[in-house]
Amino acid sequence: MARSAGPVAALVVLALIAIPVGAVIRTAGGIAGLGAADWAALRFTVWQALVSAALSVGLAIPVARALARRRFRGRSALITLLGAPFVLPVIVAVMGLLAIFGRAGLVNTVLGGLGLPPVSIYGAHGVILAHVFFNLPLAVRMLLHGWLAIPAERFRVAAQLGQPVGRLLEWPMLRRAVPGAFAVIFLVCTTSFAVALILGGGPQATTLELAIYQAVRFEFDLRGAASLALVQLGVCAVALGALLLVDVPDALGAGLDRTVARWDGAVSRDAAMLAAAALFLALPMGAILLSGVPGLAQMPGSVLLAALRSLAVALLSTGLCMALALAIVTHGRGWSRAVAVVPLSVTALVLGTGLFIVVFPFVRPASVALPVTALMNALFALPFAVRILAAARDDAEAQFGRLADGLALRGWARMRVLILPRIRRPLGFAAGLAAALSMGDLGVITLFASGGQETLPLAMFRLMGAYQTEAASGAALLLVTLSLGLFWLFDRGGRIGAET
Amino acid sequence: MALKLESISIALGGFDLAADLSVETGRFVALLGPSGSGKTTALNAIAGFVPLSAGTLRWAGARIDDLPPAERPVAMLFQDNNLFPHLDVARNLALALTTRARASAEETRRVEDALARVGLGGMGRRMPGTLSGGQQSRAALARVLLQDKPVVLLDEPFAALGPGQRRDMMALCRDVLGGAGRTVLFVSHDPEDAAQADAICVVTEGQVSRPRPVAEVLDDPSGPLRAYLGK
Amino acid sequence: MKTPLSVIAGLLATPVVAQDNVLTVYTYDSFVTEWGPGPVIEEAFEETCDCDLQFEAAGDGAALLSRLQLEGPRTEADIVLGLDTNLTAAARETSLFAEHGITPDLDLPVDWTDDHFLPFDWGYFAFVGNAKDPAPDSLRALADSDISIVIQDPRSSTPGLGLLMWVKTAYGDAAGALWEDLSDNIVTVTPGWSEAYGLFLEGEADAVLSYTTSPAYHLIAEEDDSKVAWAFDEGHYMQVEVAGKVAGTDVPDLADQFMAFMLTEDFQSAIPTTNWMYPAVVPAGGLPDGFETLIEPDKALLLSPQEAAAKRDAALEEWRAALAR
User: Fold this and answer.
1) Is the pLDDT at A333 greater than 80, yes or no?
2) Residue A317's Cα: distance from chain center in Å?
3) pLDDT in the model for residue A259
4) Is there a contact between B74 and B96 (Cβ–Cβ < 8 Å)?
5) Each residue of C275-314: pLDDT tens digit?
6) Which of B12, B74, B84 is the best residue to mutate to test the A interface, defined by the most A CB atoms within 10 Å of its own CB?
7) Please, are residues B183 and B206 in contact by the beta-carbon 8 Å criterion?
8) Residue B115, domain member (yes or no)
9) Contact assignment for A151 to B81 by CB distance below 8 Å
10) What dihedral do alpha carbons B40, B46, B49, B54 form, nearest 10°?
C-alpha cells in the first residue's frame, strides 16, 4: 500500500461526487436561484436536523454510560439491537413506529383502554421521534466506543481519589466525541425525505431532499435539482467547518482494557435508562416481525432471488467501502478524512442522475445497475466507516507506531501486523454497518434497474405498489433479518477475542 | 495496628487466589512471584477493585472490604495511566485534596510542597505528556503522599523505568512513604527490587504466603519460586 | 466448481440482450410485477409478433418521463407505457414521441383526440374507506366532517396530483378555501400511493385517496368486501393512462403493432384484475364479476393536457399555502 493511497482514495471519493453533480449541472445548463419554497425547505431541513441530532446525542449519553458501566445478561444482544434501526429501510421503520405510536398503535390502544385521549405522532415531533429512533442507537454506539477507550486504570484512580468520574473523565471524553456524533447525525437528518413527509403531516415538513425529488422525478427540472444539491453540500460544508472549530484533540489517550468496571452511579437509574432505550427500539422491531411472519409464505420466488442479489451487492459494497476507508484512515491527512464525510450530504437521487448521464453514452445503464449500486452504497457508508476507524487506527499508531517503525513494518505488513488486529472491533462494526446500509438501500437502484435486477428493497417496494401488502411485510421481515444478520456477523467477527 | 487479610479468596474467571496474612504498620513488603501468579489481583482486591468471594479485610481491626475504594485507607499506584493527560501536574495532584475545580491557596501550597518532596518543584503547570517517564512516576508518587492514606499499594508503577531510575524511585518511596509511617505493599517480579523490602510475600500457585524475611526467601526459595528465580 | 466470487459476479451481471426484434417498453414498477399485467401481456404479444417484448420498469409515471428526458433521442425505449394526461403535455414537448396513426374505438367517459398518445386504461380517483363507517357524499362534506384521511403529495405522486386537479376542477377559485377546510382532516401526506395505502390498511386513517376500482381488488383477490369507494356529488377526476410510440424507435413496425395490440381483447382483458383499472376497450365478455359493485360517478372530470399543465403551478401553490399553516 503506497503512502499516496489515502489521498488517492479521497480523490476517488471527491470525483465520484463532483463528476455526477457536474454532469447534472452541465446537462441543466447552469443552476437556478432558490424560490421562497426552497428557502422554507432549507429552514425546516436544518431546524429538524439540529433538534433530532441534539435529542439523539443527548439521550445517547446516559444510555451509553449505562452500557459502559453495567454488565448484565443480554448486554451483547442489546448492543447488536442498537445497530438495527439505523439500517432499516425507511418505510419499514416507519411502519414499525406506527404500529407502536400510530393512531391504531400500541400506545394509543393502551391510552384508550385507560380512558385517556390519544396522542398523534404526526407533526414535527413525529419526524423527530423517528429520527431519534434511527439515530439514537448510532449515537450510543459512537459514544460507547468513547467510553470503552478510557483506560480502566483511570476509573480506578478516580475511584480511589473519590473524584467525580463525570467531570474528571467523562466530560473530556464527551467533549471530544459528542461534536463528531452530533455532526454525523445532523447530516444524516438533513437528507431525510420520506420520514419527514410521512410523519411531518404535510407540506410544512418539506425538506430539501423532497424538493430535489420533485425537481428530478416530477418536473425534470435539473437546474433546480442541481442548485438544491449545491445548497445541501453547502449545509454539509458549514457543519464540517463548525466541527473543525469545536474539535478538540484526543485528550484521554488509548485504553486497551475493556473491563470498564465502575464504582459510581445508581444501578437502578442505569437499569431504567437501558430498559427504556431497549423498549423504544425493540417494540417497533417486534411489530415488524409480527406483521411480517404471515407474509413470508406469500412472497413470490423472485423475492428470494432479489435477496441473493442484494446480498451480493452488500458484500461487494462492504469490500469497496472498507478498502476506501482503510486507505483514508491509514494514509490520509486531515483533508482526506474530511472529504470522507461529504457523501453524507449528497442525495442519492442527484448522484444517481448524474451517474446515469455519465454512463449512458457508453453502456446500457441497466447493465451496470448492480455494480453502480454497490459503489454508491460504499460511498454512502464511507463517512461512518472513516469516523469509526480513524480513532482506533490513530490509537494503534500512537501506542505501537514507534515499535512498528523500529521493526521496519511498512505498507501492507504494517496493516496486517499492527493496524488490522488493533482495529478489529471497530472494523467489524464498520463493515457490519456498511453491509446493512447497502442491504437496505433504495436509492440509485431505482434509477438504473430494469426488469430482472430488483434488489430486495426494490422488490419490497414494488410489492407494496401492487396491493401485495402482506407479501411486502414478509419481504420487509426478510430484509430486516438479512440486514441484521450481516451486521451481526461482521460485528461479531470483530468482537471475537475482544472483551465487550 | 495491622493490615489483615483473613482467609480471603478471590475467584476470577477460573482462577482462584487465596491469602491469609497480616502486615504490620510501617512495613515495606514485596509481593514476589512470576507473571500471572495473581500479584496484581491481590492488590486490586485490597484496594476494592476486585470483589472478595470469601474472607475479611481489616485495617486496625475495622472491617474494610465492604467499603468503596475511596473510603478505604488505601492508595494505589498502577503500572500505567496514573495521571490524567488532560490536566496539568498540579491539578492532577490537587485531585487528592479536593473535588472542586479550583484548589484553595492552602491546597496549592500543599501541592507545591509535595512536588518539591519528590524533586519536581516548580513543575506544577506542566502537562503530564511533556514529562519524562521518571518525572511522571514522581508526580504520581507525590499525589499518593497528598492522599494521606496509611496503606500504599504499588503495582509496578516503575516497571517502565531504567534500572537506575527504578532503584532511585524505590529509594524515594522508602524515604517519603516509610518516613511518613505508611504501610507499603509493592508488586515485583524482580528479586533485586524485592531485596529492598522488609519482608516478602511469595505469590505462587494461587496462594499468597505470609510475609517472610527477605534473606530466607531469596537464599532458600522453595517449590515453584525456586524454578522462577532459577536457583 | 464455483468460487464465492464467481457466484457474486454472476448475481451482479446482467444477461446479454439479443438486439434483433426486441421491443423495449418502458413502464412503471407495478405494471411488471407478477401480479401486474406485464407477464400476461408479454406472453400474449410474443405469440403474435415473433419478437421479444422486454419491459423496463422505471418508478412511476412521472419517473418514466424523467428517465426518457434524461436519455433523450438515444433512448432504447420503443414504447413508453404508463404516462397520464397530467404528463402528456410535457411529454409531447420533448418531441421524443411519434404520432400513433390509429383511430381508436374507446370506451371512455370522455372523448379522446390525442394523436400522440393512446389510452390503455383509466379510472376515477376516489377516497376509499371502510364500509362500516358513514360515507360523506362530497368533497365539501368530507372537508366539513372530522373524518381522517391520508393523501399523497402532488409534488411527488400521480394520485396526489390527481386530487389537486380534482379539487381545482370542481371548485375553481374556491379550491384554496376547500383545501383549508380539508387540512384538518389530513392525517398526513405521503410521497407516493404505496405508503398512503399502507397507512390506511394499518388503520392510521379512516380513508385514503385511491381509485374507485381499489375495492375491486379487495373483493376479487381477497374476498374482502369491507372496503368501499365514496361517490362524491362534485364528480370524480379521472386518470387516463396512456402509451406513446418513441419517435426514434429502431423497430417502428413492431412498435405500431404493439400500439394496435394494446387495444385488443388480449391486452385489455388482462387490465381489470391485474392493473385494477377500467380497460380502455371493454372486452367482449364484459368486466369481471365484482366490478358491477363499484360506484359509478355521475360526472367524470378531466382537464385537457394543456389545461392541466397550465393550471398546475398555481394549484400547487394554493395547496401548499392552505396546508402549510
Assistant:
1) no
2) 15
3) 40
4) no
5) 999 999 999 888 999 899 999 998 999 999 999 999 998 9
6) B84
7) no
8) yes
9) yes
10) 100
Write out the residue range of the structural domain in which residue B136 sits: 88-140
CATH of domain A297-500: 1.10.3720.10
The string of pLDDT tens digits covering residues A433-458 is: 899 888 888 777 777 776 667 888 88
Cell of C162: 390527481
CATH T-level topology, domain C16-122+239-287: D-Maltodextrin-Binding Protein; domain 2 (3.40.190)
Q: C217-251, pLDDT tens digit by residue? A: 999 988 999 999 999 999 999 999 999 999 999 99
Is the pair C, A in contact (3+ CB pairs within 8 Å)? yes
CA dihedral A280, A281, A286, A292 (to 10 degrees): 130
Q: List pLDDT tens digits, range A205-252.
A: 888 888 888 888 777 888 888 888 888 888 888 887 887 776 544 433
- Kindly list the residues of chain A whose beta carbon comes within 8 Å of any beta carbon in chain B: 151, 153-154, 156-157, 159-164, 167-169, 172, 251-253, 255, 261, 263
What cell does C231 get? 361517490
CATH of A31-293, one of 3.40.50.2300, 1.10.540.10, 1.10.3720.10, 2.40.50.1000: 1.10.3720.10
Exposure string over A371-389, b if 16+ CB within 10 A, otherwise e: bbbbbbbbbbbbbbbbbbb
The residues that bridge with A94 in the sheet, in sequence order, are: none
CB–CB contact B75 A162 (8 Å):
no
Q: Give residue C26's Cα distance to chain centre.
A: 14
- The pLDDT tens digits along chain B (231 residues) read 789 999 999 987 777 899 999 999 989 999 988 888 888 889 989 988 888 899 999 999 999 998 888 888 999 888 877 888 778 899 888 888 877 767 888 889 999 999 998 889 889 899 888 888 889 989 999 998 888 889 999 988 888 788 888 888 888 888 888 888 899 999 987 788 888 889 999 888 888 989 998 888 888 777 677 777 776
Q: Where in chain A is the domain with CATH 1.10.3720.10?
A: 31-293, 297-500
Whether residue A497 is predicted with pLDDT greater than 80 in this model: the reply is no
**Alpha helix locations (H) across A254-366?**
267-296, 301-331, 334-339, 348-359
Q: Which residues contact B36 (CB under 8 A, 6 or more apart)?
A: none
Residue A264 has a pLDDT of 61
Query: Using an 8 Å Cβ cutoff, are B52 and B45 in contact?
Result: yes
Domain range annotation of chain C: 16-122+239-287, 123-237+293-323
User: What are the distances in angstroms from CA A18 to CA A208, A224, A354, A358, C166?
Assistant: 19, 17, 9, 12, 42
Q: What does the pLDDT read at residue A257? A: 32
According to CATH, what is the number of the domain C123-237+293-323? Answer: 3.40.190.10
Instruction: Copy the grid coordinates of residue B174.
Output: 522508602
Of C44, C37, C38, C33, the residue nearest C274 (C-alpha) = C37
Q: Which residue of B has its CA nearest to A260?
A: B49
Q: Which residue of C11, C32, C56 is in closest CB contact with A308?
A: C11
Min Cα–Cα distance to chain A from C170, Å: 22
A-contacting residues in C 145-204 (Cβ below 8 Å) = 148, 153, 155-156, 183, 186-195, 197-199, 201-204
Please tell me the total count of domains within chain B: 1
Residue B116 lies in a domain: yes
Please name the residues between 32 and 71 in chain C that touch chain A, using a CB distance below 8 Å. Answer: 32-36, 54-59, 62-63, 65-67, 69-71
